[in-house]
């Protein structure tokens, strides 16, 4: 049993109960039996109303999910090539990546999730948060960088920021596991060689590289939602998955590479900190039972009041 009082009602009904009790005590001797009985009924009703105002209720146990003891960092490629339409169902690579990452993040509810996106530069789009809903919304709307603004892609441009982010997370929650998920197509269009991801390996307990695209490649809209395709000298350009680069990146991270073509099992990065706890919470209200019990004495009081009113009226 627990209580959820409405204090202003408790104080009001308690004052009434004290008043009625004082009147009953003062008139206890020398009053007719009927008067004493009426006073007693009034006190009982007032005390019952105090009980109603205290709102007695039951209790039940509910399970409290255990905190997910993992810091998850997502690195998402949003270069123009991620707009290539060679994912399952003729969709863009970015649509496939966003769909996968939404599912992955939802499965790691309670984890601290950070999202780094990169095109010409890298930025921390979502600082570490346990708000799954906001991360899911962001991932579903991130899109890719229009080709007209692209300056050539470097698949390793986000490494420095990822290293900084992971180092900070390790200092904040040293007891947590850290997981890194890299999602991209591996296409390096800058003339310089890409940088290594090996520096991140020592900062993570688990790493996954998710690859999007096909060896046949796909055409690319100039911008998300556009019908015009990227072309050069009148020839439509195709972006091709560089699976070899992605596999090398996974090796540098001491992680695993998965070619994502739609469907299939995604990495499970959930790390419960312990078994789920249970807590007691208020259940069904019982004040209505007390109120129901008070109906007969209330009717008695009402009948007595009506009879007295009639008597006074007849005397006039």
UniProtKB/TrEMBL annotation:
Pfam family, one: VWA_2
Position of the signal peptide: none
SUPFAM superfamilies: vWA-like
Source superkingdom: Bacteria
UniProt name for this protein: VWA domain-containing protein
Natural source organism: Nocardioides marmotae
């Amino acid at each position: 049993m627990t209580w959820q009082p409405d204090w202003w009602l408790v104080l009001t009904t308690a004052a009434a109960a004290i008043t009625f009790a004082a009147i009953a005590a003062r008139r206890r001797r020398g009053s007719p039996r009927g008067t004493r009985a009426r006073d007693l009924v009034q006190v009982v009703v007032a005390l019952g109303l105090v009980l109603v105002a205290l709102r007695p209720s039951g209790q039940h146990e509910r399970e409290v999910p255990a905190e997910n003891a993992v810091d998850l960092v997502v690195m998402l490629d949003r270069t123009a090539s991620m707009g290539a339409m060679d994912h399952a169902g003729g969709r863009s690579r970015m649509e496939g990546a966003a769909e996968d990452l939404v599912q992955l993040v939802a499965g790691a509810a309670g984890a601290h999730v950070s999202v780094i996106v990169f095109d010409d530069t890298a930025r921390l789009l979502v600082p570490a948060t346990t708000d799954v809903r906001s991360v899911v919304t962001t991932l579903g709307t991130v899109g890719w960088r229009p080709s007209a603004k692209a300056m050539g892609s470097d698949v390793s441009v986000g490494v420095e920021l990822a290293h900084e982010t992971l180092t900070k997370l390790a200092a904040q929650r040293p007891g947590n596991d850290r997981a890194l998920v890299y999602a991209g197509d591996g296409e390096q269009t800058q003339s310089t060689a890409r940088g290594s991801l090996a520096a991140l390996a020592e900062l993570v307990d688990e790493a996954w590289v998710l690859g999007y695209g096909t060896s046949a490649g796909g055409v690319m809209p100039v911008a998300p939602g556009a019908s015009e395709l990227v072309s050069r000298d009148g020839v439509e350009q195709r972006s091709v998955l560089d699976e070899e680069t992605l596999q090398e990146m996974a090796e540098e991270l001491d992680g695993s590479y998965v070619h994502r073509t739609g469907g299939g099992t995604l990495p499970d990065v959930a790390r419960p900190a312990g078994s789920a706890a249970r807590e007691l919470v208020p259940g069904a209200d019982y004040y209505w039972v007390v109120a129901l019990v008070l109906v007969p004495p209330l009717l008695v009081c009402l009948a007595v009041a009506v009879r007295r009113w009639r008597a006074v009226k007849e005397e006039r």
